[in-house]
Amino acid sequence: MKGIFKHIKGDRTIWALVAILALFSFMPVYSASANLVSIVGGSTLGYLVKHVVLLIMGFAIIYAVHKIPYRYFSGGSVLLLPVVFFLLIYTLAQGTTIGGAYASRWIRIPFIGVGFQTSTLAGLVLMVYTARYLAKNKDLKIIFKESLIQLWVPVALILMLILPANFSTTAIIFSMILIVAFIGGYPLKYIGYILGAGFVVLALFILIAKAFPDAMPNRVNTWGNRIENFSNSDGQEAYQVEKAKIAIATGGILGKGPGKSIQKNFLPQSSSDFIYAIIVEEYGLVGAALIVFVYFLLLFRIFIIVKKATTIFGTLLVVGVGLPIIFQAGINMAVATNLFPVTGQTLPLISSGGTSIWMTCFALGMILSVSASKTETEETILDDNPLDILHEAID
């Protein structure tokens, strides 16, 4: 055990919290995957093994990323922007379905057969890119026209490629970028301009999608149905919420016990989008409160790292990649408890699924890199050159 602790750096509490969430996820995923077995096939043990393997790979990602000096993430975001741009185009170009499933938001990774949601990688890159821009301009007077070209045009291009297939992810990324911009000292007046422009672009997109529904893959009708069904007793979305509410209502204080959920057999996406409802049914109010408490502790430790960061970029980086994890968890739990319309957001580190686990672990690795750093200075961050990173990688 001492040998393991010798090799890990950064905030030990975050390491412990991530391990707690990962270990706790085993039983809910094993139990809730019974629904997948009845619909898709396979076995609950097989889905559990897949989940465990993905988590092990996730911890490998955390370990590898937290060893990288975080100044490299600044230039790396510039190099990855065109990569995610073309990945998103490729994802949309696949059409709307693969094997009968909606596929305009993910691509299939060859050989390992895991779906990769390109928008999650794009969101992570955008957050780091935004932190980089704000850190580099912290002592300069920001000119709105210049910031449009340097910051908002790249952000807009990426978000417009995510929007047709995934409105909720687009909204989360855009909201987080505005929060980071506010914390980073971007003029509030300009933030208002960008927010207004965002609403205008969204309205235009909805109008165009309604007028030309076959022009591009989009889910505008799905968004409208979800909002409508949020207060409507009919429809598929209402069915999901109804089953989730039954699971929560029958959980009681201590729950029915691990693996004893009834609603897992009827609730679609019970191992991913609605896994929190299964947790409440099996572990009761106590289990549900403990999960919320762990995420609250994670948020608290993120703020501790923000306070201790020695550079502006480090501060904004932790905020930019850390807050979305907690925000996503909150949305997932709010959907399961019928406080928010269905969005398709998973519960970080607990829900089954590869991309969410990997990108969450990548973000946590960056946070741990910042918490472990004692030598980074503002000068080394601001003097970064993306080409230098590429040269070092080649060497």
Outline the structure in words:
The protein is mainly α. It has one domain (2-394). Helices cover 70% and strands 2% of the residues. The strands form 2 sheets. The protein has a two-stranded antiparallel sheet. The protein has a two-stranded antiparallel ribbon with strand order 3-4. Helix 5 packs across helix 16 (386-394). The chain starts with a helix and ends with a helix. Mean pLDDT is 83; it is low at 97-103.
What structural class do the secondary elements suggest? mainly alpha
Model regions low in confidence, pLDDT < 50 over at least 5 residues? 97-103
Number of discrete helical segments: 16
Radius of gyration based on Cα positions = 21 Å
Report how far apart the termini are: 34 Å
Oligomer: single chain
How do the strands of the widest beta sheet line up side by side? Answer: 1-2
Helix content class? 55-70%
Beta content comes to under 5%
